[in-house]
Design goal:
By secondary structure, this protein is α/β, with parallel strands linked by helices. It is about 30% helix and about 25% strand. The chain contains 11 helices and 15 strands. Strands 3, 4, 5, 6, 7, 14 and 15 form a 7-stranded mixed β-sheet that branches. A 6-stranded parallel β-sheet has the order 10-9-8-11-12-13, sandwiched between helices. A two-stranded antiparallel ribbon has the order 1-2. Helix 11 links the parallel strand 14 and strand 15. Helix 4 crosses helix 5 and helix 4 crosses helix 10. The longest helix has 14 residues. The relative contact order is 0.15.
């Protein structure tokens, strides 16, 4: 019998048993090694921190099955599956569950030598890979990242890999700033974004950054992000707020000619989508250019799911990567 997480209602989670579907001719059956909680998304969903009529409201219906960062082993393949065999390690955007049966087109090979615990970040790397594309990073660029949570950590690493020379990260939590430094940040600032202008200028040789990335998902940060970009700079909205009505434009947009662009998981194109982003992410991890040391702070057994979500909600500043180890009962 397989097991999975379910949100039966607001602020409720439980581990339930379920029957796996039969293996189709194009399917693979997966046995999960670990899955990563997307703390930003899953916190919004768990607590229903979104407005009526938003895309969140249209998406979250009960029962809701959370999660989208799964690392697994192939247990069996359908007769028409050619790309995978039993024993292969794969990643996929499946929910938190012990087993899955999915179309083989929806999983991707995990290269040898990569720790599954680090590989579990592939889903957040994909989201922020779209943020990197939207930012249009240039060699020698100046970049400011607001927020050093999971999304902020990943976009910091993309910016460093893309050749940013000045890479400043703002967050009030010291442990998050230390992880950002490990990921390539050239300077870190422990202040709120609306109070950090002088510190940002000092960290960037007296100039405002060309690219400002709001990775927080906090609606009040948006106006501060606009104020921190250089004239004709670029502001990327990467954190997906549940209350967009509280995000407000400022006069900075028109007076300084700012470009504002949003980035989202669903912005795949034939040239920049899941296969390309995962392949590059795993290459950067394998070659040490994406330093993920220490990024996972908590590991729970699936039976501890209530404690895991309680920890994510009540001790947010102490958490980064929250993993579920499906080898544990």
């Amino acid at each position: 019998m397989a097991s999975r997480f379910v949100f039966p209602a607001k602020q409720q989670v439980r581990l339930e048993s379920f029957d796996l579907p039969s293996l189709g001719e194009n399917d693979v059956r997966l046995r999960t090694i670990c899955s990563l909680m997307s703390t930003g998304t899953e916190n919004i969903v768990f607590n229903r921190l979104f407005e009526p009529g938003t895309h969140w409201d249209n998406w979250v219906k009960y029962p809701f099955y959370p999660g989208y960062c799964t690392v697994a082993v192939v247990d069996a393949v359908g007769p028409k599956v050619a790309g995978f065999k039993p024993g292969d390690r794969v990643v996929g955007r499946q929910s938190h569950a012990s087993h899955h049966v999915v179309d083989a087109a929806h999983v991707y090979p995990l290269p040898e030598g990569i720790d599954p615990r680090e590989a579990a970040w592939f889903g957040l790397a994909k989201i922020t890979g779209h943020g990197a594309k939207a930012a249009q990073f240039e060699l020698g660029d100046s970049v400011l990242v607001i927020g050093a949570g999971p999304i902020g950590q990943m976009i910091t690493r993309w910016a460093a890999a893309a050749g940013a020379v000045s890479l400043v990260v703002i967050d009030p939590v010291a442990s998050r700033l230390e992880l950002a430094r490990k990921g390539g940040a050239t300077a870190v600032i422990s202040q709120s974004a609306d109070q950090a202008k002088e510190a940002v200028l000092a960290a960037n040789h007296g100039k405002a950054p060309r690219v400002v990335i709001d990775s927080t998902g906090h609606p009040k940060v948006f106006a501060a992000a606009l104020a921190l970009a250089e004239r004709r700079g670029r502001v990327v909205v990467l954190g997906d707020t549940g209350t967009p009505s509280q995000q407000q434009l400022s006069s900075d947009v028109i007076t300084r000619g700012l470009t504002i662009v949003g980035a989202h998981d669903g912005h795949d194109t034939p040239l920049w989508g899941a296969p390309q982003i995962y392949r590059l992410f795993f290459h950067l991890v394998a070659t040490g250019r994406f330093n993920l040391a220490g990024i996972n702070t908590h590991t729970f057994a699936p039976a501890q799911c209530e404690l895991a979500y309680k920890t994510a909600n009540e001790r947010r500043g102490e958490t980064m990567g929250i993993l579920f180890d499906w080898a544990k009962p």
